[in-house]
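Researcher: We plan to redesign the surface later, but first we want a full-length starting point. Tokens attached.
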């Protein structure tokens, strides 16, 4: 099992995400100091800017760097698409969701949720309802 120092600090940061911002930031810094192209850390940094600081421009930059570092890291698609929908960049969100659909390990339910949100924000309620229905069918 090959766990790098960047991985270890990323896991510490992930564990601290919901309850300890100081530990989160410190662990993110350490992880990036060991590997500045560590996609999971860049993605989590993007989430931190997006969800904790509401700094959407910086979050977008972090997500883009995460995609450059590893175009197959699933969580980047999950959270970056959410950000793009939040900030109204629906065309970019649509392209990213399309790429996410082709990414191994991407949960179908996340794709359905993002499409439904995107359609709803675009005022296409009928398409949003269709996506929601797909999700209901998928869940069984």
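Model: Full-length starting sequence:
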């Amino acid at each position: 099992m090959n766990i790098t120092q960047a991985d270890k600090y990323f896991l510490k940061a992930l564990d601290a995400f919901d309850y300890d911002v100081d530990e989160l930031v410190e662990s993110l810094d350490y992880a990036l100091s060991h590997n500045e192209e560590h996609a999971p850390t860049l993605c989590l940094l993007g989430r931190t800017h997006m969800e904790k600081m509401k700094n959407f421009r910086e979050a977008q930059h972090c997500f883009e760097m995460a995609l450059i570092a590893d175009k197959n890291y699933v969580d980047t698609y999950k959270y970056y698409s959410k950000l793009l929908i939040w900030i109204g960049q629906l065309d970019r969100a649509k392209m990213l969701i399309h790429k996410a659909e082709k990414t191994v390990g991407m949960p179908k339910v996340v794709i359905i949720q993002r499409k439904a949100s995107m359609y709803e924000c675009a005022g296409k309620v009928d398409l949003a309802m269709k996506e929601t229905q797909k999700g209901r069918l998928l869940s069984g």
